[in-house]
Amino acid sequence: MELFSNLATGFAAATTLYNLLFCLAGVMIGTLIGVLPGIGATATIAILLPITYQLEPISSLIMLAGIYYGAQYGGSTTAILINMPGESSAAVTAIDGYQMARNGRAGVALAIAAIGSFVAGTFATLLVAIFAKPLTAIALEFGPAEYFSLMVLGLVFSTALAHGSIVKALGMLLLGLLLSMVGTDLYTGEYRFTLGIDGFADGLEVVAVAVGVFGIAEILRNLENPTSRDLVTRHISSLMPTREDFRAIVGPIVRGTGIGSVLGILPGGGPILAAFASYTIEKRVSNKPGDFGRGAIAGVAGPESANNAGAQTSFIPLLTLGIPANPVLAMLIGAMFIQGIVPGPNVVVEQPTLFWGIIASMWIGNLMLVVLNLPLVGMWVKLLSIPYNVLFPAVMVFCAIGVFSVHSNSYDLIVVSLFGLAGYLLGKIGCEPAPLMLGFILGPMLEENLRRAMTMYRGDPTIFFVRPISAVLMMLALMVLALTLLPNIRRKREEIFQEED
Amino acid sequence: MKARSPDFSNFVCGGFFVIVGLLFTFGSVGLGIGTSVGMGPGYFPLFLSIALILIGIAVLGSAFGSASARPSALAWRGVLFILPAPLVFGLTVRGLGFVPALFITAFLATFASTTMRLPAAVLLSVALTVFSTLVFSYVLGLPYALFGSWLPRL
Question: Are A207 and A403 in contact (CB under 8 A)?
Answer without folding.
Answer: yes
